[in-house]
Amino acid sequence: MEGFGAGKVILLGEHSVVYGHPALAGPLSYGVTARAVPAKRCQLSLPGTLSRPQRALLTRAFQRVATLCGEPGVKVTLESELPLSMGLGSSGALAVASTRVLLKAAGRDDSPQEVARLALEMEQEFHGTPSGVDHTTSALEKLLLYKRTPGQSTGRLKVLKSPRPLKVLVALVGDRSPTKHTVGALRERQARWPERYTRLFKQIGTLAAEGAKAVEDGDLEALGDAMNVNQGLLAALGLSSPQLEDMVYRLRGLGALGAKLTGAGGDGGAVIGLFLEPEPAVKKLLDDGVRCFSSQLAGPRAL
Ligand code: MEV
């Protein structure tokens, strides 16, 4: 028995989504797969390569969801195609994959909405009070305009239809930046200069709403422009780095309609470029030794 949790990219609106502004996010075709086999008691089997604190955290998070699912008699193993703490929603995908397989094993409702509702328990163990955009996008596997309900890790969402294929190139840059740290450091700056930061968050939220309209209108040039402006505002918020900026400019130089960091940002992480056809740029970057891949987030697929 298997459960899949998709990774995600945020096209517009990371961080400001934490403060109640909309974000535009879509699922990657890569993610985490959880596999369950019958066992005497409900347990998570982890690879020996993990550190003791990592094992403790994962076991605690798994146990929270296992209890909610009625502790079905299965042993669960996890396989991830996503790098950890690089802005691609690996923890949300892990939570969704585990929850999905546990609900299936228990013979319970495993609809995307129910998976999202329970996977939140695991996400909270990892991140405290996330906006909820990561695990919701992972569970629903749709392009979403998501707006957090104040103080909660759930929100209102609109599923967007794209008349055109929405393809991104994802490039990995530098070292991992744990989301908790970047979100926490930004919160300190925001608490110190609330008016200035609130102004920027609002502007980013407006870009996300404009980007959602551009998607529905099939105006990828307008979406790309919104991504470029969003990148400028993320840098203004102190969330970018020289390495991330270099990659942003590299992707634009390779023909991206728009390029920006995605996820938490920080010293390293992921950069996305919106491309009509990403493959030539993927090939060029792979030849240059850059870790990258392409994924279609929404829209009609080639037959
Ligand atoms: C992380 O993928 C997205 C952030 O906006 C955090 C969150 O939404 O909880 C940085």
Describe this structure in words.
It is a single chain. The chain has 303 residues and is α+β, with helices and mostly antiparallel strands. The chain has 2 domains: 2-159, Ribosomal Protein S5, domain 2, CATH 3.30.230; 166-298, 2-Layer Sandwich (Alpha-Beta Plaits), CATH 3.30.70. It has 9 helices and 10 strands. α1 (52-68) links the parallel β3 (43-45) and β4. α1 (52-68) crosses α2 (90-105). It is globular, with a radius of gyration of 19 Å. 51% of the residues are buried. The model has no long low-confidence stretch (mean pLDDT 96). The protein binds (R)-mevalonate. The site of (R)-mevalonate (MEV) has 13 residues, from α4 and α5. InterPro entries: GHMP_kinase_C_dom, GHMP_kinase_C_sf, GHMP_kinase_N_dom, GHMP_knse_ATP-bd_CS, Mev_gal_kin, Ribosomal_Su5_D2-typ_SF, Ribsml_uS5_D2-typ_fold_subgr. Keywords: ATP-binding, Cytoplasm, Kinase, Lipid biosynthesis, Lipid metabolism, Magnesium, Nucleotide-binding, Transferase. GO terms for molecular function: ATP binding; mevalonate kinase activity. Residues 57-140 form the GHMP kinase N-terminal domain.
